[in-house]
Amino acid sequence: MKIVAVDVFSYKVGYAHGTYIMSGDRVASTEDGTVVRVRTDEGIEGWGEITTLGKVYLPVFPEGIRTALRDLGQALIGVDPTNLLNVNRVMNATLMGQEFAKSAIDIACWDIFGKALNAPISKLLGGVINERFPIYEAVPLGSPESMAGFIKGRREAGINRFQLKVGNNPLEDVARTRASVEAGDDQTVIVADSNGGWSLASAKLAFQGMAGLPVYVEQPCRSTVDCILAARGSSLPLVLDESIVSQDEVYRAKYEANAVSVNLKFGKLGGLTNLVRARDLLQDLNMAVSVEDMWGGDIITAATSHIAATTRPDSLLMTPFFNDWTDGHLAGHLPRSQAGFGSAPTGPGLGIEVDTAKLGAALFTVA
Known about the structure:
Strand content: 15-25%
Distance between the termini: 15 Å
Shape: globular
Number of helices: 13
Number of strands: 16
Structural class: alpha/beta
Helix content: 25-40%
Order of helices and strands: EEEEEHHHHEEHEHEHEHEHEHHEHEHEE
Strand order of the largest sheet: 7-8-9-10-11-12-13-14
């Protein structure tokens, strides 16, 4: 089998709850998503997605991704998409870095691989061991009352894991976190996520104020070094995210930062291939696994579900179904969560069928 064309599409991905607010006044309502279709000489096609969360969350933006996809697509014409190791070798020989663009192609090639073997990606990864896994939702930054109200409303829908958006005034963030804890019960899992928004001093105050609360604290500062210093002396479990961009840094997260978990994102690591390696490393290191991407709809939700389904249940801390948060329903809002739990599709590849009519014409095609 050979790749004969790579089509790149744009589509709008809106937030289902109105306005998504993060630290530093970063706001999202509608994002510019990028969808990739990889076509083969045998008529099998695969789908991938990479949707950014604004332009100042991580060092990436849609136009840059699409420029990189032109070069990557040209280099992959004639390559066997089911040889994932070679696909990644070719991409790495074409562009240094640019992991976000590589991610969409890597996911699409896994989709083709599964379709070629008539097997879901979860089976190719070794098999499902997490048939039904709890999913989380992010709570937009707001007043303590609004955040507690969001949690109460989503708990009625079955969600009981939450990622609080904090990272502004640390004293206000403590009040937000306390109100959110009180809105849950003894089974509620809460992660207070600053997205790197606190200064070192603010992070120290936040850790002190949250002492004794049953919460995790995620990425308090921008750099791993400042996260280490901020968490020093605190008993609250630390999760790292934005500053961990390679498997080497997973070791640093455990042995220098004393982190209990790393939030793995497809885009940061260059796709499903590298994410699985990092996931397995976290499990071997007895660390909790969180897996997601920056944003997205049905395609990235399907990819996430296959990782979650093949992760040990006792290791999985947080994973979302982004298509519950957004209106990015290119595949009929599948896979779909049920009462706060998700599962992986059982069809071949990603296990979803993309409705090309909802995408319209491609921005460009490399052939």
